[in-house]
Write a structure and sequence with these properties.
81% helix; mainly alpha; single chain
Length: 251
């Protein structure tokens, strides 16, 4: 029980850090930093920090050639496809619609966990997932929920849902052979490389951006807390308690 308590505490911190990330992202976008440039630098900083942490703790593992495709696919799912789907889906619909669709992630995670990995789920797990999703719907309805159905927007949001669950499936597979430090390190390295071409396409715009120390502060916080700590806690939870319960908790 104490062990599970630490896992759930880590998941709680992960949710808090991910929630705080919206504030820091808004600060950086408000001063003119292009979103893809922000992501590339954020993931790059996270990769460098995590490399030295992993090296110092003796946690850095070599990736076997047979697993390279899974590592690349993991990073392709999240952060790359998840970010593209969620961000552009919100632009074409509304935050309300996005919240409803994104809240289905734990439902699919529960089904995939059972079907693919034969994870054991109790009625309490199922009840918790239903309550979590229902809570999102009730909260939104209390705020005057109105769904804006745009086919392209909905498809992009469903891409984000699929990417999040694809990420969880591959993480579950990889953590059989690799520790969470190695998995999250490669996620950040490959994620930064995937976003780099988009960042370079914004080079002209980035040239007009004056980067100050005040802007560096939220960027470092984004790298250290959501991109490093949250994903370490999340990957550890998927490894220890399964993707169904881990995703249910972070709804």
């Amino acid at each position: 029980m104490k062990h599970n308590g630490r896992i759930y505490t880590g998941l709680l911190l992960a949710v808090i850090f991910w929630g705080m990330s919206f504030v820091w992202v808004d600060q950086l976008l408000a001063v003119g930093m292009p979103s893809y440039t922000l992501l590339t630098i954020r993931l790059g900083i996270a990769a460098v920090v995590l490399f030295f942490i992993s090296l110092g703790l003796g946690k850095l593992q070599r990736i076997h050639r047979r697993d390279l495709k899974w590592i690349v696919l993991m990073a392709l799912f999240e952060p790359f496809l998840y970010f593209l789907g969620e961000t552009n889906g919100i632009r074409l619909t509304t935050p309300t619609t996005a919240s409803v669709i994104i809240s289905t992630i734990p439902i699919f995670a529960l089904l995939l966990g059972v079907l693919v990995y034969r994870e054991k789920v109790s009625m309490l797990n199922i009840f918790g997932t239903v309550v979590a999703v229902a809570g999102v719907l009730v909260t939104l309805s209390g705020e005057g929920m109105s769904l804006q159905i745009n086919l392209n927007g909905v498809l992009l949001l469903l891409l984000a849902v699929g990417a999040a669950n694809g990420f969880s499936l591959i993480v579950k597979k990889l953590t059989v052979s690799y520790n969470m430090f190695t998995v999250v390190l490669y996620q950040n390295v490959i994620g930064a490389l995937l976003f780099l071409p988009f960042s370079l396409s914004n080079y002209g715009r980035f040239g007009y951006f004056v980067f100050s120390f005040g802007d560096f502060y939220p960027l470092v916080l984004l790298a250290l807390l959501p991109s490093v700590m949250s994903f370490l806690f999340y990957v550890n939870a998927i490894q220890r308690i399964g993707m169904a319960r881990a995703n249910m908790f972070i709804t």
